[in-house]
Amino acid sequence: MESKKVKILTIATTRFELDGITNVILNYYRAIDKTDLQMDFVVPNQVADDLKKEIESEGSQIYTINNRMKNPFAYMFKLQKIIRKNKYDIVHAHGNSHTLTLEMYSAKKCGVPVRIPHSHSTSCKYKRVHKMLTPLFNASYTHGFACGQEAGEWLFEDRDFYIIKNGINLEKFKYNHDVRVEYRKKFGLEDKRVIGHIGAFTFSKNQSFLVDIFHELYKKDSNYRLMLIGNGNLKPEVENKVKELGLEKVVLFMGKRWDVPQLMQAMDMIVMPSHHEGLPLTLVEAQTASLPCYVSDAITTEVNMTGLIKFISLEESPLFWAEIIHNDEKIDRDGLTTSVIEKIIRSGYSIVDNARELKRMYKSFLDVK
Prior knowledge:
Elements: E1 6-12, H1 20-31, E2 37-43, H2 49-57, E3 62-64, H3 72-86, E4 90-95, H4 101-109, E5 114-119, H5 127-140, E6 145-146, H6 149-156, E7 162-163, H7 170-173, H8 177-186, E8 193-198, H9 207-220, E9 224-229, H10 235-244, E10 251-255, H11 260-266, E11 269-272, H12 281-288, E12 293-296, E13 309-312, H13 318-327, H14 333-346, H15 351-366
Parallel strand pairs: 1-2, 1-4, 2-3, 4-5, 5-6, 6-7, 8-9, 8-11, 9-10, 11-12, 12-13
Helix pairs in contact: 1-15, 3-4, 4-5, 8-11, 9-13
């Protein structure tokens, strides 16, 4: 007799598209053994057709519920209807604040035995609401997850939580010279010094300050180029700033991309002056690609597994950042590959190992073998 599948509902509280939290969710979904799992999704937006097709081909369902913060009661009503209909064993919701109470309370009300909020940042947009919801949040979940220590302390304070590392497919991102040559030729970057940034155009990512840094670098050396991957609400503002500074021909707005691993090969560095982050998946990927990374000191030092990351204060000027970047020694990415991969694996960021451990945890919470 076939054993009953464990039914898991994964909830994305931020847009389900090609960046950040979505990539973490998909990395685990693609790597985990789903033989005895039924894994469905609730997301806040319509999913791209090719991604929807991929997920549905695995036997998973995707439910879209929008206006989570604009109309929370309608959101919770719809969510509870989905949970009751499918009788989930586990609800695992990804976000960055105590507004995850919406998902945890709904799951508790529907009798879901395992309710997991998963922290991906060290701050949030709705700080007053976050504080107000703390007692209900604490009473609604069963197991806390976080991408790193600081992200966990932000969401769960002095309560216990598990660190679930943002594992990646190492083979996809490790340095590849042939791909580097191909992609630099494709975008006319053969003799250029390419600064990369990957992330939605939001306040937390701070791309406006990044443009200021790039402007200082470009004044030092006109061979610098800036590659910005992602979309978001603040993109028009950043585009206007680039035009005002006369940098339109040397800043590449790439939009959302499926070929981020290949584009990372074409880059020479990552610069990430974020206001706040959890433990950015991008920086794990960048280190796997043997890319030097210059990041704000608002980002947790936990992410520096290879020595390739330098932390710089946001209180310093764009010129200060530019001088550190410009005067740094170039590295031999090819020569670093083997040691970098070993360090990433040793630090626990192989998605194969991590997905196996996540499944073990799911079953142990339910006391299922």
